[in-house]
Amino acid sequence: MPDFLAKAALMPQGWAEDVLIKVDEAGWIVDVRPEQSATSGTILDGPVLPGMPNLHSHAFQYAMAGLAEHSEDPANSFWNWRKTMYGFLDTLGPEELERIATCLYTVMLKAGYTQVAEFHYLHHRPDGSPHEDPAHLSRCMIRAAKAAGIGITLLPVLYAHGGFGGQAPESGQRRFINTPEQIVDMVTTLDRDYKADPQVRIGLALHSLRATTPEMIAEVVKAVRSINPQMPIHIHAAEQIQEVEDCKAWSGQRPVEWLLENNDVDPHWCLIHATHMTEEETRALALSGAVAGLCPTTEANLGDGLFNLPSYLRHGGRFGIGSDSHISVNMVEELRWLEYGQRLNRRQRLIARMGLEQHIGDFLYRAGLEGGAQALGTKTGKIAAGHRADFIVLDKENPSIKGRSYDLVLDTMVFATNSNPVRDVYVGGRAVVKNFENLRDESA
Ligand SMILES: [Zn+2]
User: Which residues cross the membrane (predicted)?
Assistant: First the structure.
């Protein structure tokens, strides 16, 4: 693998110039040295950042992005959108699914996402019958990621019920349904099959409290913890008010409150959305060390509500970003709207930061890197030895970025770029995007 020389790179301790990055054949950074000169390797001519992990994706939803923006029903909500989504799954086959995912992952790479956590609940055929290999569609997603060149954490999802308290699933959910044993088998098999591949990791997802039962959660968590005590565990939680009300009716507790009291939620957990929390839940989630998986453009599109970011950050809470329904595949937009939602709500500025001296763009980007890597169970998000060689090169000719001092590049990128600032992308040390074009482009 040739060396890289970055004219300027965002290191854990700040910006450095003339950074020599050595990468081994398997795509790991083995040495990083600032202030170096000649190299026979690749010159990275533009501000270099660690690539952003995308911690929440339902790839198939990319094909319906923009198709649920009209309805004759005046009571339009998340639940109508979900109906449209179920209808969309009536005919979607494995080949189409793999094509959609390959195209999506290609678009993600061009936007600067270098890793994705695929929260994968589409397991069966359109009629609900299982594939001969129950992990067939999971393997399609992994193949798509490898074809596009993005790193993937595949999270097979346990989805067993249609509502709290073990309600029977409805017909629109027939492609999602598995028993805990079937999901544990799938996780075990995939984990074994992809163990040697540094671009692939396997985790577990529980769809939500409404789609599982306490006994099932205990069973699958125990089983995957015996495979790998650090395996990522993701769950949708408290996205919608209706879900909070239903959870209270079922258990007397709110979803995040219930999860934290009844499970050993640790830094390997990721709670997706966690939109509706009390102050106490916000504090407790932050102190658990788990990651909040925030998806601002999807949460806006679905009318979910706003995450209590200031309080969560005050308690040291960790977060990462995801494009979820893929109504937008743009890390800049996720970070920008994470802050803008808070500004609009509080009629204040500069909300997402930990110290008064901190730049917001810098804080948001670094926090997204760290929380995302934690949620995906990857050694990414840092240009440092022992981490994956996942990095992006910004376009130094971008009209907003051109001429900016390095310490202002992230603020400018997050709040002021209106065209894609990501020119080149490397995953595991291999170029996947050059000059804004994916080298294995499937999106055309
Ligand atoms: Zn989701």
Answer: none
